[in-house]
Amino acid sequence: MYTKILVPLDLNEGSFADKAVVAARDLAQQFNAELFLLTVVPGFEMPLVATYFPEQAHQAMMTDAREAVEAEAETVLKGSGVTYHCLVKEGKPVEAIQTEARRLGVDLVVMASHKRRRLERVALGAVTNKVVAQSDVPVLVIKP
């Protein structure tokens, strides 16, 4: 039923991210699907941002993000037999997730959600809520 599953990771969310990867792993094993673990870092392409951070900082951030995604994959997917790919993109999370989902041709997105008070959801707008609302494919939301 599923052949490609995208798992966007908010690396700041710790165990919530683990739960999404575990759920995606289980589905990938069941359907022999490929996993794509994605994290999105703030865009350095904006001139204002680029003037405050040297190129070394940009490279360090990208390297750190890649290592964190790979560590997450190693922790949860090691020995599972699931084929997976680690991706790091720059920009706005919702846009990057949607772009990668289309580019990769995924047929499911698995995301963690976290508890937020109603006011925070309205004021900030959760990435998960926006992805669910805008996605062209089914989105499985893993709750804490």
Tell me the radius of gyration. 15 Å
Walk across the major sheet and give the strand order. 3-2-1-4-5
Category from helices, strands and their pairing = alpha/beta
Helix content bin? 40-55%
Strand residue content: 15-25%
SSE string, helices as H and strands as E: EHEHHEHEHHE
Q: How would you sum up the global shape?
A: globular
Low-confidence stretches: 120-125
Instruction: Please state the average pLDDT score.
Output: 86
Strand count, sense and closure of the main sheet?
5 strands, parallel
Say how many strands there are.
5
- First-last Cα distance: 26 Å
Q: What's the number of helices?
A: 6
Give me the secondary-structure topology.
Layout: E1 4-8, H1 15-31, E2 34-41, H2 47-52, H3 55-77, E3 84-90, H4 93-104, E4 108-112, H5 118-124, H6 127-134, E5 139-142
Parallel strand pairs: 1-2, 1-4, 2-3, 4-5
Question: Explain this structure to me?
Answer:
It contains six helices and five strands. By secondary structure, the chain is of the alpha/beta class. Strands 3-2-1-4-5 form a five-stranded parallel beta sheet, sandwiched between helices. Helix 1 links the parallel strand 1 (4-8) and strand 2. Helix 1 (15-31) crosses helix 3 (55-77) and helix 4 (93-104) packs across helix 6. It is globular and about 45 Å long. The two termini are 26 Å apart.
